[in-house]
Design a protein that fits this description.
This protein is of the alpha/beta class and 601 residues long. The chain has 4 domains: 219 residues, Rossmann fold, CATH 3.40.50; 114 residues, Rossmann fold; 173 residues, Thiamin diphosphate (ThDP)-binding fold, Pyr/PP domains (Rossmann fold); 53 residues, Alpha-Beta Plaits, CATH 3.30.70.20. The chain contains 21 helices and 22 strands. β2, α2 and β3 form a beta-alpha-beta unit. α1 crosses α2, α1 runs parallel beside α6 and α11 packs across α12.
């Protein structure tokens, strides 16, 4: 064993490697992305690693390998689990042969997600056992144990870290390479009575799953990572994940020590351990992210065993119903519960608030030019702009104001069709990125062609999966195994499903782009525009823009596109050359030609 300083996601990945993982598949999504990337980074070629086109595909690839005896890992964020839920719900009934861990990183806040959904609740719904780490060190060790439980009980298992576990850094004790487990898959053995899901099989296995989960409840009561830490009062704290870590920091050194229940396996819930904990307390405060999973379970157990312990938490408004639990939040909750002084001082109350930094498209982002071109082309016409999930969601901000709807990945293409059916005289546009197109928007294009919609599909092709850290996708021609393959051409896909009008446009040639959008939008049926320009973060040009002396201070450049590279200094418009990438969009907007490329550095 030795120690390494690493991110929580890196610890999770290295735990999987130490456990002998054979295959890793996933789809990028903060806060989970670094797990798969770390496995790929340290892969000696013995592990197959792929970014799948979406989470459903990843789940099915991993399931096939697990049927064959391989140890597999699937990675995604909490909203990705929605995409993967179709195969997962059946997979739990079928079971696996090799260990299969489904890493779902939850995002309390939410910091970078559409929802705050709690995978612990999904675990109960799907009947899949769930592991919930509270630190990077525990995440490393628990990952190894998760494979052992998965194989012993022939079930996929959830591994559910939250943002502060995923992205925290710590010194983690890890195994030396010669201590790694080596898993040699047997291969797929044909057995239709096991691997083909029929109603009879489902009915039989459902009963077995319920019996197994009752057994696991007892097993997890003795699982070392679940703990009843005895204090010196009749008050108790029940917590999970990072909330447990915050709670332990809060009570450290206090004379009054509450009893602590640490829940590392929220499903199946460690009922026997919980009963022992509840009998030691008159009152319990539950601190958890996000749903009141522990609180509901303890309330149920109190009723089942006729215990008069009072349970407090989210359902009693003693803890916030939404959002992540910061250390300050947890300290406040516990201090109020225990009747402690909070220790606040006048100095504490005078600390200035941090400045607001709204999210914005990067300077030089080609999506800004694409949005602006469509906006100019459709000026004065009744139009809806259905957006999607990605960097381009930021097109909703002023002054662009070009995202009227945003639901989930790939939804914009179909939402635009729905709006058009109700009000046919509305020009309906949908915007989707190149990676998202492959992940979940292709079916929307098929639906539009099949049902003869009047709509314009706009593909914002910046040659990468930019929002999650520039991962490859089918249109890049690269894989996570380092292979260079033929790029899957978006235009060919669109034409293959029956879209007859497909235009490729450079959004940074503004006049041409506006003209082409006007022409395309007025054509009947399903049309597609592919705006092609690489992500601004993929290169750094040598010649940023600069503002000349002939500037008339109309500030149209700032008011029209809102590029962060254009700023006001000494009451004049100037270019921040530390941000500008020289895209030249502002120079095409300036009415007097005052913005030009500089002479370089």
């Amino acid at each position: 064993m030795h120690k390494e300083f690493m991110m929580g996601n890196e610890a999770i990945a290295m735990g999987a490697v130490a456990a002998g993982v054979n295959l890793v598949a996933g789809y990028p999504g903060t806060p989970s992305t670094e797990v798969l990337e770390t496995v790929a980074k340290y892969n000696d070629g013995s592990i197959y690693v792929e970014w799948s086109v979406n989470e459903k595909a990843a789940m099915e690839v991993a399931a096939g390998a697990a049927y064959s005896g391989a140890r597999t890992l699937v990675t995604m964020k909490q909203v990705g689990l929605n995409v993967a839920s179709d195969p997962l719900m059946s997979l739990e009934y079928v079971g696996v042969k090799g260990g299969m861990v489904i890493l779902v990183a939850d995002d309390p806040g939410p910091i970078s997600s559409q929802t705050e959904q709690d995978t612990r609740t999904f675990a109960m719904y799907s009947k899949v056992p769930c592991f919930d780490p509270s630190s990077a060190q525990e995440a490393y060790e628990m990952m190894i144990e998760a494979y052992e439980y998965s194989e012993k009980y022939n079930t996929p298992v959830f591994f559910r870290p939250t943002t502060r576990v995923c992205h925290a850094y710590a010194s983690v004790e890890v195994k030396d390479e010669n201590e790694f487990y080596t898993n040699r898959p047997e291969g797929f053995v044909k057995d239709s009575s096991r691997w083909v899901i029929f109603p009879k099989l489902s009915n039989r296995n459902h009963a077995l799953i319920e019996k197994r989960n009752r057994e696991l409840s007892d097993v997890f009561s003795d699982y070392a990572r679940n703990a009843f830490l005895k204090g010196n009062t009749r008050k108790g704290i029940a917590a999970n994940g990072i909330s447990f870590a915050h709670a332990m920091e809060t009570i450290k050194g206090s004379e009054e020590q509450p009893n602590i229940l640490k829940v590392a396996t929220p499903f199946p819930f460690p009922e026997k351990l919980a009963v022992e904990f509840l009998k030691a307390n008159n009152e319990v405060l539950c601190i958890e992210e996000l749903d009141p999973v522990i609180e509901r379970e303890l309330t149920y157990i109190c009723g089942k065993y006729h215990l008069d312990t009072k349970i407090r938490g989210k359902l009693t408004d003693d803890v916030a119903l939404s959002g992540e639990n910061s250390r300050d939040d947890v300290t406040r909750y516990i201090s109020s519960f225990m009747g402690w002084e909070t220790g606040s001082t006048e100095a504490d109350t005078t600390v200035p608030e941090l400045p607001v930094r709204p999210p914005v498209l990067c300077a030089g982002c080609p999506h800004r030019a694409s949005f602006y071109a469509v906006k100019q082309a459709m000026k004065g016409r009744e139009t809806i702009f259905a957006g999607d999930i990605g960097c381009y969601t930021l097109g909703n901000a002023m002054p662009l104001d070009m995202v009227d709807t945003c639901l989930c990945m790939g939804a914009g293409v179909n939402i635009a069709q729905g709006v058009g059916r109700i009000k046919p005289d509305t020009k309906c546009f949908s915007f989707v990125g190149d990676s998202t197109f492959f992940a979940s928007a292709i079916t929307g294009a098929v639906n539009a062609v099949y049902n003869q919609s009047e709509t314009t599909i706009v593909i914002l092709d910046n040659s990468t999966t930019a929002m999650t850290g520039h991962q490859p996708h089918p249109g890049t021609g690269r894989t996570m195994m380092g292979e260079i393959n033929a790029k899957i051409d978006i235009e060919a896909v669109l034409r293959g499903v029956g879209v007859e009008v497909v235009e490729r446009i450079d959004p940074l040639r503004l006049d041409e782009a506006v003209k082409k959008v006007k022409e395309t939008a007025d054509k009947p049926g399903v049309k597609a525009i592919i705006f092609e320009s690489p992500c601004a973060m993929l290169f750094k040009p040598e010649r940023p823009m600069c503002v000349g002396d002939n500037c008339i201070d109309c500030r149209k450049c700032i008011k029209e596109i809102g590029c962060p590279g254009l700023i006001i200094r000494d009451n004049k418009v100037v270019v921040d050359d530390s941000l500008c990438n020289g895209c030249g969009l502002c120079s095409q907007i300036c009415p007097v030609g005052a913005i030009k490329a500089s002479e370089g550095k």
